[in-house]
Design goal:
11% strand; hydrolase; Alpha/beta hydrolase; AB_hydrolase_1; alpha/beta; hydrolase activity; Carboxylesterase_BioH; 221 residues
């Protein structure tokens, strides 16, 4: 199951999904609430995105699943792996901005300003993916930022419950992953490998070949 980030939709995974299908895999690509073809709602709490993904797994009768999540999708798939460890065979988290662990921390990103390629992607997104841009419920943006700024100790405590081998993909200076928090996350999980890239926040888009080379072997291909 491939889960997109905030502001996108399932079509962001088309290229990678084709590779998985060629290898005989069944691929499920949902649109998160407030995105794509899914309904808008009044609430956009991070655990709710995960609960939606888990309900989908249950409705489809999945007994074992590999989960890949980008950014906001990383919150969703990690929540599923915490709540139902036995369901998740392999877990891939791409550039999930890690939350605060306590009220004493300051919210920091690796860099403040977007790169020229990121600006280009942003300014042309309406032309490239008008469906995703137009369907996105912009009201969730402020709600997401508010959650990023608040401590989320329950998420940190839940990391120890994840039993699936986990691959965390982080970008370079243009990414949104705090290195210190990432090291704490890696140390908190039974089996977590970190793979670093030189691009920004969207590795599967901007460094697709490198993304594929890291993720496919991890998934067993």
């Amino acid at each position: 199951m491939l889960v997109h980030g905030m502001g996108g939709d399932g079509y962001t995974w088309d290229r990678f999904a084709q590779q998985l299908v060629r290898r005989g895999r069944r691929v499920i690509i949902p649109d998160l609430r407030g995105h794509g073809r899914s309904a808008h709602t009044e609430s956009y709490q991070f655990p709710e995105f995960g609960a939606d993904v888990l309900r989908l797994c249950e409705r489809l009768g999945l007994e074992s699943v590999d989960l890949v999540g980008h950014s906001l999708g990383g919150y969703a798939v990690s929540w599923v792996a915490m709540q139902r460890p036995g369901l998740v065979r392999r877990l891939v988290i791409e550039e999930q901005p890690l939350p605060l662990r306590s009220g004493d921390e300051q919210m920091t990103l690796t860099r403040r300003l977007p790169s020229v390629p990121e600006l280009w992607h942003a300014t042309t997104s309406l032309l490239r993916h008008p469906r995703a841009v137009l369907a996105f419920d912009r009201s969730m943006t402020g709600k997401a930022l508010e959650q990023f700024r608040k401590p989320y100790p329950e998420w940190w405590e839940g990391l120890a419950e994840i039993t699936a081998p986990t691959l965390f993909l982080r970008g370079g200076p243009g990414g949104m992953v705090d290195p210190g928090k990432l090291e704490h996350m890696r140390a908190s999980m039974p089996d977590c490998t970190v793979c670093a890239f030189t691009c920004g926040h969207s590795i599967h888009r901007d460094r697709y070949r490198e993304f594929e080379s890291a993720v496919l072997p991890f998934l067993g291909h």
